[in-house]
Every structure is written in structure tokens, then in C-alpha cells.
Design a protein that fits this description.
Number of helices: 8
Shape: globular
Largest sheet: 7 strands, mixed
Strand content: 15-25%
Radius of gyration: 22 Å
Strand order of the largest sheet: 1-2-7-12-10-11-9
Order of helices and strands: EEEEEEHHEHEEHEEHEHHEH
Distance between the termini: 44 Å
Helix content: 25-40%
């Protein structure tokens, strides 16, 4: 895996770009069959989902098979890395690469603390109220409402959220108050139009219990290398053309005309960052056997409760 730190013009770290190679299929794998999705981890069903015919939402059924791809985080590690999202990102990236049960596969990815979830609290609600509202409820089954929550990008836990008095949550609540709480790792899945919690269910519960904004690391796919290279060439050509246009103006109107670098330079830098960081749809692999196989798996994991109903 090739890693590249993404920074702003002033050198401030903003994200970690990952180029993954020689991993054609992930251990945490999304499979599709018509309007149905199946998330498996090392071939075990973790989540079944069925998109409504009117595309207004998704019914889901969550099993108890999910296991986080990151090892337990020690308190001394949390203290050492507190306030350093860049170091957390590198650590999480290595764990995701080492784990056979994570979502990484060939292509380019981004790990960033700048999740859009941090910008959606337009009503300035208290953190505990806002983050609770972003959690998709229901176990084992529930519903992701695309109509009511369109564009809000909710959070779907991959296992039940622990209570505030859970022993792990109590330990993390102290870290949240001390400012040493490790980030919650979220994976954006476009087919569900929501985030899945890859690691940090108890940490998120602790932040909510303390009414604090949780530190996050947001994982999503980005454009492949060849597309980034092509886009870079186009951006550079536009930059050069803009400088040439300003040069012609200077020849005609004199040195009072600027050389254009102050205008074209920031635009070029912004476009190059966007090429490396823009979100791309989540990959899904065809489910062998299609919808028939999906329904067979659904009957097995739901003890034949006929979920969801035929429609």
C-alpha cells in the first residue's frame, strides 16, 4: 500500500491517501443482486439490505457476525496519539492493510477526519442529541430512510450500540473528557447512502454519553490513479493556458497587468487536491446465484421470518 499525506497550502495535514495493490477482493465484501445487497466478512453474512421499489429507503437485517478489523486500542496508545489525527490515520491504515477482514481492495482510498457528518448539525443541537439522531436504529432489523434523511448520511452500526453504563463505554467516557478518545472509524457505503461503523461503537457511545463531538476518521474510495493522472494533465494545461492569456494581456497593456499566477495557482492546487480526495461510489461484486441466493441466505439468517416480505 502506498500512502500519501494530503495537506493544505499552509502545510496543515488534512487526509491520508491510500493506493492499495494486489488485493482484488476484500474480506469485508459488498455483494449485489438487483435491488438487494449483502455484506459479508470472510464469507459470513453481516448485513442484508433490500432497497425499496420506489427508492425511498432500505430495509436491513444485521447479524451478530461482524468483527472489527482493528485490534483493541490501548489507553497508553490513545494518550500518545491524542491530538494527532495524522498519526491515527497511518495507524488505522496499517491495521486495515494487515487485517484479512477489512474493506480495502485494489484502488485508491482516503482516510480523513473531515467527515461531512461534522457539518450537518445546522440546528446547532447539543452533540448528544445530534449524534443520536444520526444513528440508524434497529436490531436485528431496521430501515434507512432516504426520503426523510436524504443527504444527511446517517450512521449504521454493524452491531448493537453499547449502553452508557457498559464497562468499555465508561472507560472511553473518561478518555473523551480528557481529550484522548481515539477516533471512530467510519466507512462510507454509497449503495446504502450511509456510513458503517468499522471500529469504535463503544467510543461513539462514550462521546454521545458525554455530549461531545467524537473524533472521526472517514474512509471512502477515490478516483483511480489513471484518472487522477489524466485530470492532472488537464488541470496543468488549463493553468498554462491561463498564464499565457495573462502574458498576452501584459504585452498589450503593460506591466500593470499581473502575471496571473495569483489567480491560476490556487485554482490549480484546489483541483489537484480534489482529484485525490473526491468521493467515488463503493464497489460491489455480483452475488453468485443472484436474488435467489440472496433470499436463501435471508431465510437462513432470519430463521425464516420472511424478511423482507416479497414485493
Amino acid at each position: 500500500m502506498r500512502r500519501t499525506d494530503i495537506t493544505r497550502d499552509d502545510g496543515t495535514w488534512t487526509a491520508l491517501s491510500l493506493e492499495v495493490r494486489s488485493r482484488t477482493r476484500p474480506g469485508l465484501c459488498l455483494l449485489s443482486a438487483e435491488r438487494r445487497l449483502l455484506l459479508t466478512q470472510l464469507s459470513r453474512p453481516v448485513l442484508l439490505a433490500a432497497v425499496d421499489g420506489d427508492r425511498c429507503g432500505v430495509e436491513f437485517w444485521r447479524t451478530d457476525a461482524y468483527r472489527p478489523p482493528l485490534p483493541p486500542l490501548r489507553a497508553e496508545t490513545a494518550r500518545a496519539l491524542a491530538g494527532h489525527p495524522d498519526r491515527w490515520a497511518h495507524r488505522f491504515a496499517q491495521h486495515l492493510l494487515d487485517s484479512p477482514a477489512g474493506p480495502l481492495h485494489d484502488g485508491c482510498w482516503l482516510l480523513s477526519p473531515e467527515s461531512p457528518l461534522l457539518r450537518w448539525n445546522h440546528g446547532r443541537r447539543p452533540p448528544h442529541e445530534y449524534w443520536n439522531s444520526m444513528l440508524v436504529e434497529g436490531h436485528p432489523d431496521g430501515y434507512i430512510d432516504w426520503f426523510v434523511h436524504s443527504g444527511s448520511w446517517e450512521i449504521l452500526p454493524l452491531r448493537p450500540m453499547p449502553d452508557a453504563d457498559d464497562s468499555r463505554v465508561k472507560a472511553y467516557r473518561k478518555q473523551a473528557r480528557d481529550g484522548t478518545l481515539p477516533p471512530v472509524l467510519l466507512w462510507w457505503v454509497s449503495g446504502l447512502d450511509c456510513h458503517l461503523i468499522l471500529d469504535g461503537h463503544a467510543r461513539l457511545a462514550a462521546a454521545i454519553a458525554e455530549s461531545l463531538t467524537p473524533p472521526l476518521l472517514h474512509l471512502h474510495r477515490t478516483a483511480p490513479v489513471d484518472e487522477v493522472d489524466e485530470g492532472t494533465e488537464r488541470a496543468v494545461r488549463l493553468y498554462e493556458a491561463e498564464l499565457a492569456r495573462f502574458a498576452e494581456l501584459r504585452e498589450r497593456q503593460g506591466p500593470a497587468v499581473p502575471d496571473g499566477a495569483a489567480v491560476a495557482g490556487p485554482s490549480l492546487a484546489r483541483r489537484l487536491r480534489e482529484l485525490r480526495t473526491e468521493q467515488r461510489p463503493t464497489w460491489a461484486w455480483p452475488l453468485p446465484g443472484g436474488e435467489t441466493q440472496w433470499r436463501r441466505i435471508a431465510r437462513e439468517v432470519t430463521a425464516d421470518r420472511r424478511w423482507p416480505e416479497d414485493r
